[in-house]
Structures are given as C-alpha cells and as structure tokens.
Amino acid sequence: MRIAAMLAAVLFVLAVLASLIPLVAVAQPGDYSSLTAEARARYFNEEYTQALELYRKAFAIGKPGLADLRYAAFCAAQEGQTDQAFAYLEEGVPAGMAGSEWLEQLERDRELARLRPDPRWKNLQAAMLKRGVEIESSFPEARAEGTLIDLPAPVLKGSVSVEEALHNRRSIRVYADTTLALAEVSQILWAAYGITEPAGDGHDHHRGGLRTAPSAGACYPLEIYLVARRVDGLAPGVYWYKSETHQLMSTPGGDRWDGLADATLGQGHFKTAAAAIVYSAIYGRTTSVYGERGRERYVCMDLGHSGENVYLEAYALGIGTCAVGSFMDLNVKQVIGMTRPEEPLYIMPLGKMRSNE
After folding, report:
1. Is the dihedral angle over the CA atoms 214, 216, 217, 222 positive or is it negative?
2. In terms of Cα–Cα distance, which of 250, 298, 277, 304 is closest to 185?
3. Are 66 and 92 in contact (CB under 8 A)?
4. Do 88 and 123 contact (CB within 8 A), yes or no?
5. In whole angstroms, what is the distance from residue 325 CA to residue 265 CA?
6. Domain boundaries, the chain
7. CA separation for the pair 222, 226 (Å, rounded)
8. From its phi and psi, is residue 233 left (phi > 0), alpha (psi between -120 and 50) or beta?
9. pLDDT (tens digit, 9 = 90+) per residue, 304-357?
10. Which fold has domain 148-352?
11. Contact status, residue 275 vs residue 184, Cβ threshold 8 Å
12. How far apart are CA 351 and CA 73, in angstroms?
C-alpha cells in the first residue's frame, strides 16, 4: 500500500508539471522577429504602450533594425516619452539611419511631429547628414573580383506562351515556403539581361553583346544582383550577375537578407521570398551619349523593359515577383555592396507561387 501511495503521489506531481509546461512555454520570451512583428501590429492598432514594451524586449535580445527603431520611436513619441524617442533615432544613425533620404522621411513622419521643436532635432539632422557622407565615401569606385559560379544554360523554348504570361501575370507579394532551383534563378537572370547576340562590332559599351532587354543606344546601363536566401546550390548572400558570360560572382559579406528587408522599412514581401533581384544603374553609360535625357527617360525605360521580362519569365516558371521601388537608396547600396557610380532602382523578390494563386 505504501508503494502504491508513493507511486500515486509521483504520478500526481508529474501530471501537475505536465500541465505547467504550456504555461512555461508561453512565459518564455519570444524571438526578435516575433516580438517586433507583434509590436508593429500593436502600433497599427494604436496600442502604443504595449508596442513599446514589446520593442524593448526585442531590443534586449537582438540587434535593432532600422525600421524597428523608427517604429519604436513612433511609439515612444506617441506616449510622450521624448527622451526615449530621441534615443531610438540616435541609435539608428551609426547603423545607417543616415543621409538626406532618411532625413526627409523622418521630416514627413507625422508620428514624430512633437519631437521637431526640440533642440535635439537639429542635432539629429546634423548627425544623419554627416553619417550619410561617411557612408557615401565608403563605396568603392570599382567592383572587387570574386569567385565565379557557372549558371545552367538558359532554355530557349518553354511550355507557357507569351500571351498566356501576359494575361496571367500579377504582382505577387506572398510566396510558398520552399526553395528555388538554381536553374530557375538562371533562367530569370537570363531573361532580365542575358546575352542573345555576342558582340562582334567592336563597340565596347555593349559589354558582351545585345541582350534580352532593349536599351537606348545599346548602352546597357543596368547592373543586376541576386540576393540568395533559399536557392539550391547557393549559399545565402549577394551575387553580381555577370551577364557577358552568364555567371554569378560572389561578393563578401555572407547572408544579408535581413539588411535588405530592413532597407525597405520592413515590407512584407521579404518575409516569405526565397531570393530577390536588385537592379542598379550606372547613369553615365547612357548620359555620356544622350545627356540628361538619358537620366530622365532612357535609363528608366531600360529598367522597365528588363523588369517586365522578369515578370513574364517568373510566371512561366510558377514563380511570383513584385517590383519594389520604395526603399532607402543608401541602405540598399550599402547592403548590396554597390560601387560608387551605381544607383539602386528596383528590388524584385522571388518565390514559388502558392497553390491558390
């Protein structure tokens, strides 16, 4: 009887402990991403006190992103915690909340209106502009050499007609949780800017030949990067597309996906995408021939031609994409590791379309 009683007591204790496990799990602090996601949801629901507390917890366990610091400053300002709001903004400056574009954004943010009469606002402005100049001066004039990776040869005949792709193409912002094949990425890069007729006319500005996308005067001002997150056969990181030889060149820095998403101020496209194409332009290639008309019109036209190719090829492969033009130029340029002459233009996240799309 004594043994039976002891066994019953042990079983009772185990049952009590088992019932507490869910409570313990709930009480555990969440990871950075889940905390900041909930914080932003609370902010948009105007629950500023709760949002601010969640941001504080997140920042205690992870390095704050620029978008999160901005929203945390919003919450603090709305709660009348001016010192804390300035502290969040000032913390962001060394990390890249810098330059005239960021300054203009914060000047437009109505959530920060009560901070602007404060003398510290001018100090913040000066610090942001100074840091912007420092970042700009850090960009190299030319691209450093890296390891070249051969891409699978593009397929020149598919099973989806141009008409079908034109009719069904849509901007897709949420993607299936799966990887992309290297062959799929190769096909999309080729569609964007691949060589279709090797150069033989002695014109150096062709940089390899005529391409899948037309260009004013065949100046080809665009540069294309692949930001890999989940691509079979590629380590997460940033790769420059060497279109002349249909190769990728690795760049130093490793996985920079979170930095790219942060440069877009946390747009949702990047939560599920497996990769992204980033466009930049060296305007001088076109303006040297056409002057300012090249900057005002022709380079943008070139980008549109190439971007539409990506949309159509992606659809044909069952891949979704969406052209993103809202981002902080300086941060994108820094994350990608662009050269000084380049100006970022487009980000196109890529991911397999979900079954209901």
Report:
1. negative
2. 277
3. yes
4. no
5. 12
6. 32-137, 148-352
7. 13
8. left
9. 999 999 999 999 999 999 999 999 999 999 999 999 999 999 999 999 999 876
10. NADH Oxidase (3.40.109)
11. no
12. 32
- Mean model confidence pLDDT for the chain: 91
Which residues neighbour 42 within 8 Å (Cβ) at sequence distance 6 or greater?
A: 48, 50, 51, 54
Question: How many whole angstroms separate alpha carbon 282 and alpha carbon 213?
Answer: 16
Taking the C-alpha atoms of residue 215 and residue 140, their distance in angstroms, rounded to an integer, is 26
34 backbone dihedrals φ, ψ, rounded to 5° = -70, -35
Question: Nearest 5°: phi and psi at 104?
Answer: -65, -40
Q: Which two tokens stand for residue 197?
A: 């007729």
- Is 335:327 a contact under the CB 8 Å cutoff? no
Cα 254 from chain centre = 14
* 343 class by beta-carbon count within 10 Å (0-12 exposed, 13-18 middle, 19+ buried): middle
Q: What is the pTM of this model?
A: 0.88
- In the DSSP assignment, the letter for residue 161 is -
What is the distance between the alpha carbons of residues 207 and 195, in angstroms, rounded to a whole number? 10
Q: Quote the tokens at residue 8.
A: 């019953």
pLDDT digits (tens, 9 = 90+) for 23-32: 333 333 579 9
What share of residues in the chain are helix, strand, coil (percent, to 5)?
A: 55, 15, 30
Give the helix/strand (H/E) hosting 22: helix 2-27
- Is beta strand 237-242 parallel, antiparallel or unpaired with respect to 222-228? antiparallel
Residue carrying structure tokens 């049952």: 15
Q: Which fold has domain 32-137?
A: 1.25.40
Identify the burial level of 75 via C-beta atoms within 10 angstroms of its C-beta, where 0-12 means exposed, 13-18 middle and 19 or more buried. buried
Residues 9, 56: Cα–Cα separation, whole Å = 43
Q: What is the pLDDT of residues 36-93, one digit of tens each?
A: 999 999 999 999 999 999 999 999 999 999 999 999 999 999 999 999 999 999 999 9
